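--- STAGE predict ---
source: upstream dedup step, 1 unique chain passed
mode: sequence only
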Amino acid sequence: MRETDVAAFVFLCIFGLPTAGYVIVRMLQHRERMEMIKHGMYQAPAEPRWAQSMAPQTPPAPARNWNGDPQSQLRKGIVTTCVGVALLIGLSFIGYSGDGTFRLGPWLLGGLIPMFVGIAQVINAVLSGATIPTSSARPTGMAPPPPSAPPPPRGPYTYRPGSTEELPRTKPPQNP
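--- STAGE serialize ---
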């Protein structure tokens, strides 16, 4: 098989098969609609599809700040920066040679670009008013019990908030 044949086959698979699939699905939908009309089971929509697209639309919602929530942008920036650093570290081994030297190359852009995009997001978020949470402000897994709660029960059971009843013990099975 020649290279041009392979390229033509790949082109047909990538573009031709989805296009053919779309045409077949639309053709089957049309046949189904025609059969439903013949048997009196089809109800046309209130307005045709082309009329719906030309009907006056409701005004769009007011545009939000493109930055969004500063805390959300800060989180996204930190994640993007970390992904960029991880890619940079992973791609840096491409330039490693056996004698212990590193050679820099254009492959490092795959990590540098997301890293600097993330750094820009972090800077923009901090300038927009985002705050970096401290360890004391970070929520824990469970809220502390209210002051009016009874003390935790003693015994082999763990603390469970509120009143809980112990399950009744079951009888062991009787052997005949």
